[in-house]
Design goal:
The complex is a heterodimer of chains A (about 325) and B (about 120). With about 325 residues, chain A is mostly helical. Chain A has twelve helices and no strands. The mean pLDDT of chain A is about 85. With about 120 residues, chain B is mainly α. Classes of the chains: A mainly alpha (about 325), B mainly alpha (about 120).
């Protein structure tokens, strides 16, 4: 099998599974949120309301496509697919089991950080292209937040790279399978790095408590204000994709990826990823939103120095102990 | 395995998925033939929009962007070293530490000046 067909086949399979998971997550999140608020959530469409995402997609497919007269048409139409493609592209280097991986790049960590960082571009394109004040304000906040939290995210992701000495994501997981999960030992580096990664990841994918860019009580819907139908759906989907794939990356870098006893690797990877994913939504429906200045202060005054200290600590550990 | 082609194929699949969603919506969605003058207006809570939204930004975004560039360059320098920490040994560690310390001195100065507070 050539590399190209390998990538196409695995890409098709992985993306199909991820999209299905996202559809289920739409249902799961609504159910979970409803239970936490003593409601029932979706019940009418299909058993337990399971077909609710299907109904939502069918509805969005039929919606009229409205482009505002004042908008920059090209940029306005370009942003939604770019967002979804950027989110899916990260999944290419994530190993879902020892053999299920789209493209096992040598510089996998670098690739996923770089492509993940590209996520701010569609946000700004959408905010600027809409020619809407709410959209622009949301986009500016989103970019300030994303680029700021990019720094602790990269520093946290460097800790596993330093400890294992490779940027190949599958090699990092293999190291953990042979030695120990990075969150278990050295735990004084692994645990803070994992927490830092999760915090930065929440901020990168605009999740509560960091969802200022689309604070619906102040900004209507942020960058999605002017979007209708499938374009809106693509943005909405990209958010879930970002969260899901970032959970998978966190599981691979810190929690040992597909490593685990008794069950096949894929099961372990799925359990860890979905566990982190559910945690993100648990946080979302529990906590309140930060204020913009608190968010920036948290990042630059606390998270960045913590990240720098962790990177140097990991290097000290590797040079003198490990 | 050279993975460049595999990555390319993966990206093509991603593009095809996003593209097919838009094409599907184009085939299925309703198209209104009635042209109403207010429909294409930008949303501003029901008011007639005042001017365009393409305006200047607050200067504090500039500070954030500046900080991002500084620290992003720092991480760009750390990335190649991160894979060879063991081989570079104590010597490499001293070099990187002195580089990072200089940067963090600047960070401490900026913090004391209040540059990191949004006001």
């Amino acid at each position: 099998m050539t590399d190209f067909t390998h990538g196409a086949l695995y890409g098709g399979g992985i993306i199909t599974v991820i999209m299905t998971l996202v559809a289920l997550a739409l249902w799961g999140e609504r159910k979970m949120a409803a239970r936490m608020q003593s409601r029932l959530g979706p019940t009418l469409v299909g058993p337990f309301g399971l077909l609710q995402p299907v109904a939502d997609v069918l509805k969005l497919l039929q919606k009229e496509d409205i482009v505002p007269d004042e908008a920059d048409r090209v940029l306005f139409n370009l942003a939604p697919p770019l967002g979804a493609i950027g989110a899916l592209a990260v999944a290419a280097v994530v190993p879902f089991s020892a053999s299920i991986i789209g493209a096992d790049l040598d510089a996998g960590v670098l690739y996923l950080l770089a492509i993940g960082a590209l996520g701010v571009l569609p946000v700004f394109i959408a905010g600027w292209g809409s020619n809407n004040k709410f959209a622009l304000l949301g986009a500016m906040r989103a970019i300030a937040q994303s680029v700021s939290y990019e720094v602790p995210l990269v520093l946290a992701a460097l800790v596993p790279v330093i400890l294992t000495g490779t940027m190949k994501v599958s090699a990092i997981v293999e190291y953990q399978a042979q030695h120990h999960w990075l969150i278990a030992w050295p735990f004084f580096l692994g645990v803070p790095a994992f927490v830092l990664f999760m915090l930065a990841m929440l901020a990168e994918s605009n999740r509560i408590p960091f969802d200022i860019p689309e604070a619906e009580s102040e900004l209507v819907a942020g960058i999605t204000t002017e979007y209708t139908g499938m374009k809106f759906a693509l943005f909405y989907m990209a958010e879930y994709l970002h969260t899901l794939i970032a959970s998978a990356v966190a599981a691979a870098l810190f929690l040992g990826g597909w490593d685990g006893p008794f069950a096949p690797g894929l099961h372990w990877m799925a359990a860890k990823t979905l566990g982190l994913f559910a945690f993100v939504y648990w946080v979302r429906w529990t906590l309140l939103r930060f204020r913009s200045d608190q968010l920036m202060a948290l990042c630059w005054r606390w998270l960045v120095p913590t990240g720098v200290a962790l990177v140097l600590g990991a290097a000290l550990w590797v040079v003198f102990v490990g | 395995m050279s993975s460049g082609l595999a990555l390319l194929a993966f990206l093509l699949v991603a593009v095809a998925v996003a593209g097919s969603m838009l094409v599907g919506a184009r085939l299925l969605r309703v198209v209104s033939t009635k042209r109403e003058p207010l429909k294409g207006q930008t949303y501003e809570c029901g008011e007639v929009p005042s001017g365009v939204a393409w305006v200047r930004f607050h200067a504090r975004y500039y500070v954030v962007a500046l900080f991002f560039v500084l620290f992003d360059i720092e991480t760009a320098f750390l990335l190649p070293w991160a894979t060879i920490v063991r081989e570079a040994g104590a010597r490499g560690l001293v070099a990187v530490t002195s580089f990072v310390v200089v940067l963090m001195l600047g960070w401490a100065w900026a913090t004391r000046k209040g540059a990191l507070q949004w006001q």
